[in-house]
Design goal:
The complex is a heterodimer of chains A (260) and B (242).
Chain A (H helix, E strand, L loop, with lengths): L1 H12 L2 H21 L2 H30 L1 H8 L5 H30 L8 H28 L3 H29 L6 H9 L2 H13 L2 H45 L3
Helix pairs in contact in A: 1-5, 2-3, 2-5, 3-5, 3-6, 3-7, 3-9, 5-6, 5-10, 6-7, 6-9, 6-10, 8-10, 9-10
Chain B lengths: L1 E10 L2 E11 L4 E5 L6 H9 L6 E6 L2 E2 L10 E4 L11 H12 L5 H7 L15 H13 L5 E5 L7 H16 L3 E5 L3 H7 L2 E6 L2 E6 L1 H8 L4 H10 L11
Parallel strand pairs in B: 3-8, 3-9, 6-7, 7-8
Antiparallel strand pairs in B: 1-2, 1-4, 4-5, 9-10
Helix pairs in contact in B: 7-8
The chains are: A mainly alpha (260), B alpha/beta (242).
Chain lengths: 260, 242
């Protein structure tokens, strides 16, 4: 597995998209730090960017890379390696290289500002962790969809729809249901609903940690009220990790049974 | 040797293999023939564990291989479509597969034979189809495994490379390797194959030597004998080996 991982990362490190992705975060973070000049405001702005962009890029790159490595996977399947190692290696290859591009792009400007000497270090670490988790979640979802659909266009379309649904439509439906059912107690409903969307979870997680009440939103407030900031962060974090594990497990299960 | 027993495989409603029983002998070159969609590649992929059979068993040297993976140490496989991670250089691709297999290899012989020296530092995405196929063949022959399985080995090759390939396969045979290949090129079968397996609609219609096939079909030559099987699908010539 380590070898497949290593080589697929090696392949990606040569791709110019990896650098474009890295440069985007580098320039954006530097720009935000320059404009707002405060670390916490920059972190809040970055949250809004990464919760949309990381899922989108993870989805697109995931689907493209998986379909492009189909023949390579077939080459590996004929080698004396376990199937699981091939598919896990491919997944980790893309997820880690995207996560590294993101982490370096965001971290370098903060390091220049000596983030470790400030009180924002914890918030910054959470921002990094959430970005990395979102990368793993959406690469996993994209791989799951791509593996289940041999038809590229269908797989690609479906992956984008999942992103669109979780990033945009879900919130709309959620708010709509809050308005429709406003006469009922909605706390546990909204607590569960936000757990079912990794993008919402990420936003809540960082806002809870940052303690920006104005930006918490309804679900964030519910999290805060019922679980408190500390437990809320813990629960949201655990739920995000479950979001990494579940699609990955399904992906590996399907891979084990699939014919190539 | 490879033993295939009662192999069944369907993709949805499409029944590709319908109970294949086949014994592939050691130290021989066996050609698998059949029209497009007859099940040749699916059968090969079942042997490699890339396709999971619905029913049936496969044995390599009397050991059951269905569901395993270590046995692939002993098989060199040439897939039909050659495509690799596009940002890797050929040199890196070779070292990667060597690294994965951890076995001695003689890729330099093939690099020289196919004139690949000048391409070693080129990225795979910049190669022509024929050059990719040469890389593909090198990858599938450089480990000197006891079993060699090639799916359409001559596809995209120039005549000089085809001659080299034939020589290599003959040499490997004299070294006692089992060689299995699929093709649509009849002259290649006539030149190389000692054993012919004919698959049609997921069943074995013939197994035996070239002469057996011509004699049993009552035709004058190989091409007509094949055409006769295709024309008259009820003509089942019982496998001679079983």
């Amino acid at each position: 597995m380590i070898k497949v991982w290593q080589y697929s990362m090696y392949d990606l490190i040569r791709s110019r998209w990896t650098y474009i992705y890295f440069l985007f975060y580098l320039v954006t973070t530097m720009g935000l730090l320059h404009i707002s000049n405060t670390l916490s405001m920059t972190i809040v702005s970055l949250v809004n960017i990464i919760t949309i962009l990381i899922p989108l890029i993870g989805t697109i790159f995931g689907a493209i890379y998986f379909y492009n490595s189909k023949e390579f996977i077939e080459l590996l399947l004929a080698q004396p390696i376990r199937r699981r190692s091939i598919f896990l290696g491919q997944y980790l290859g893309l997820a880690t290289s995207l996560a590294i591009s993101y982490s370096l792009g965001v971290a370098l400007p903060f390091l220049i500002r000596s983030i470790w000497l400030t009180d924002q270090l914890g918030n910054f670490m959470i921002l990094l962790a959430v970005g990395i988790l979102l990368t793993f979640i959406f690469v996993g979802l994209a791989y799951l969809v791509a593996l289940s659909n041999n038809n590229r266009m269908k797989g690609f379309g479906l992956a984008i729809i999942i992103w669109l649904f979780l990033a945009v439509i879900y919130d709309g439906l959620f708010i709509l249901s809050l308005i429709v059912f406003e006469d009922y107690p909605l706390e546990s409903f909204s607590l569960i609903t936000s757990m079912l969307n990794p993008i919402d979870l990420s936003r809540i997680l960082i806002m809870l940690k940052l303690d920006v009440a104005a930006l918490l939103g309804y679900t964030g407030a519910v999290f805060n009220k019922f679980l408190g900031a500390g437990l809320g962060v813990g629960v949201a974090f655990t739920a995000l990790i479950a979001w990494v594990i579940l699609p990955l497990t399904a992906y590996l299960k399907i891979a084990a049974k699939k014919d190539f | 040797m490879i033993d295939i027993r009662n192999l069944h495989k369907s993709f949805g409603k499409l029944e590709v293999l319908r109970g294949i029983d086949l014994h592939i002998p050691e130290s021989k070159i066996t050609a698998i023939l059949g029209p497009n969609g007859s099940g040749k590649t699916t059968m090969i992929k079942c042997v490699l564990g890339m396709v999971h059979p619905d029913e049936g068993e496969i044995f390599l040297d009397n050991e059951r291989i269905t569901g395993g993976w270590q046995y692939r140490e002993n098989i060199d496989y040439l897939p039909q479509i050659a495509q690799f991670p596009e940002n890797l250089k050929i040199r890196e691709l070779f070292s990667m597969i060597k690294d994965i297999r951890q076995r001695p290899s003689n890729e330099d012989d093939f690099i020289e034979l196919f004139g690949l020296e000048g391409f070693l530092n080129k990225k795979i995405k910049n190669l022509s189809g024929g050059t990719k196929q040469k890389v593909n063949i090198t990858l599938s022959l450089m480990f000197d495994s006891p079993v060699i399985i090639m799916d359409e080995p001559t596809a995209g090759l120039d005549p000089v490379a085809i001659i080299s390939l034939k020589e290599i396969l003959r040499k490997r045979k004299t070294e006692g390797k089992m060689i299995l290949f699929t093709t649509h090129i009849m002259s290649l079968v006539e030149e190389l194959a000692e054993e012919i397996v004919f698959i049609l609609e997921g069943n074995i219609y013939f197994q035996g030597t070239l002469n057996d096939l011509i004699v049993k079909s009552g035709e004058s030559d190989f091409e007509h004998a094949i055409a006769e099987i295709l024309r008259n699908k009820s003509l089942v010539i019982k496998p001679s080996a079983s």
